[in-house]
Amino acid sequence: MVLILLGPPGVGKGTQGAFLCEEKGWTRLATGDLLRAARRDETELGKKAQEFMDAGDLVPDEIIVGMVRERLRSMPADAGVVFDGFPRTLPQARALDGVLEETGRSLDAVLLFEAPDEVLVKRISGRRHAPKSGRVYNVHFDPPAQEGVCDESGEALVHRSDDRPETVRRRLEVYRSSTAPLIDYYEAASTELVRIDGDRDMAAVRDSMLAAVETLESRG
Ligand code: AMP
After folding, report:
1. Which of 57, 107, 141, 205 has the fewest Cβ atoms within 10 angstroms?
2. Alpha helices (runs of H) in 41-164, residue ranges in sequence order
3. Could you tell me the pTM of the whole model?
4. 28, 127, 135, 206: the active-site residue
5. Closest C-alpha to ligand 1, atom 19
6. Which among 45, 79, 82, 47 has a CA at the least distance from the CA of 65?
């Protein structure tokens, strides 16, 4: 399966994508995580991405597409892939079509997660990340057993600098203007697009997502 998780920041793509990949043994390809790792490692790419990310803006398409292409080429062609946070613009979506074809893959479906802006802002403001284990917590809805510490790895949790309220509003605007048009793009291409109500508790969203994926798989 090759799936795209589409939806605004804070809607639960990361949490649900990690769950889906664990359940199915698929690989999650999250461009935001790759960029944050590049920043931590202080690579050239990480340095280039930094200022865009801190402003809540998109990192230029060619950087993102190059990163995704490299990843896909290094993975076995039959590995399940779940894209999270990519594509985010029309040029990225078109480039992805090309890269999938080049690497002998095809897109099975887009899962579109939706929730109102006020819910997204509240969720993002409470979000805390464990950089090494990749786990995401929420101080309001899904806190760790010990405040500020990851249950799995024991590492200190961090509040992403782009999760500040001013930046969150900018990221939502960018989603509406640059990323939401992908819904029409995939509908026009007759790609299977499954809408998932992300304004529910995590378990309910997860169940809908799994049911949708089972349906897609049963169709072969
Ligand atoms: P995320 O973790 O997906 O919310 O991404 C965090 C930030 O990384 C975004 O606000 C962008 O600055 C950058 N980013 C992640 N994925 C992309 C992408 N596909 N295109 C452009 N910028 C991206």
Report:
1. 141
2. 44-55, 61-73, 90-102, 117-125
3. 0.91
4. 127
5. 86
6. 45
- The yes-or-no answer on residue 127 being catalytic is yes
Which residue has 């080049």 as its token pair? 102
Q: Cα–Cα distance between 153 and 130 in angstroms, integer?
A: 8
What phi and psi values does residue 112 have, to the nearest 5 degrees?
Answer: -100, 115
Residue 88 bears catalytic tag: yes
Inter-residue contact 172 to 140 (CB < 8 Å): no
- List residues near ligand 1 (CB under 6 A): 9, 31-32, 35, 52-53, 56-59, 64, 85-86, 88, 92, 162, 171
Tell me which residue has its CA closest to atom 5 in ligand 1: 32
Ligand 1 mean position to 118 CA, how many Å? Answer: 20
Ligand 1: which residue has its CA nearest to atom 8? 32
Q: How far is the CA of 59 from the centre of ligand 1 (A)?
A: 7
Residue 206 is a catalytic residue: no
Look at the block and give the residue holding tokens 């790792």. 37
Residues shown for the chain: 220
Is residue 122 annotated as a catalytic residue, yes or no? no
Per-residue pLDDT of the chain (220 residues; tens, 9 = 90+): 999 999 999 999 999 999 999 999 999 999 999 999 999 999 999 999 999 999 999 999 999 999 999 999 999 989 999 999 999 999 999 999 999 999 999 999 999 999 999 999 989 989 999 988 888 899 988 899 999 999 999 999 999 888 888 889 999 999 999 999 999 999 999 999 999 999 999 999 999 999 999 999 998 7
Residue labelled with tokens 């340095």: 47
